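Posted in: Protein Modeling Q&A

I'm a second-year student putting together a small comparison for a lab meeting, and my supervisor asked me to include a predicted structure for NTP transferase domain-containing protein. I've never done this before, so apologies if this is the wrong subforum. The sequence is pasted below exactly as I got it from our records. If anyone can share the structure token output, I'd also love a short note on what stands out.
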Amino acid sequence: MRDKFQNKTGIIILAAGNSSRLGRPKQLLEYKESTLLKNTIFEALKVENVFVLVVTGANHETIEKELNFPEIRICLNTDWQNGMSSSIVKGLSELLNLNPDCEQCIFAVCDQPFVTSSIFENLIKEHQITQKGIVASAYSETLGTPVLFHKKYFKELLDLQGQEGAKKLIKKYAEDIASISFEKGSIDIDTEEDYNKLIFKGGAK
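Accepted answer (user: helix_wrangler)
Welcome! Here is the predicted structure, written out as tokens:
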């Protein structure tokens, strides 16, 4: 296992939702001879000097059985029904408990099939170059995940509640944000139709 204490960057993969619009766990949808969630984990693990943590919630036992990765840590968000913020808080709390010296963290979701290790690497590089406290992915005229936060924002992230996600901080601190291009970041899987487009049409929405 990687020495987590050498890793100043954490990648937290949020995979706790119950995929209500899809009707089955999107985390386990087959993709690239694997699954959507495993694909995101594979890409995160390609990045050097990071600590990877996955937050599960709904369907925890089923999903955990599929994740045979000794290099990652899995934590269960029992409050997943309270919205995205509960998974952000759980994941970041666990990350800081395991790795108190963490300098920055990247939040990613499991249903962006075109996420790659280079996206994660570009977020880290852009942060190093610009020294901005937040580096977000740019697509479809918006900023979103994956998104990197410097530790100066950890307290506010831990204070998020309800349906509030990281977007709240992105909007609040516009002057401290840099971005990288992730053109296919707009493609995510929420419905059966989205998934069919991904499989049969290469993801075009």
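A couple of things worth pointing out for your meeting: The radius of gyration is 16 Å. The chain has seven helices and nine strands.
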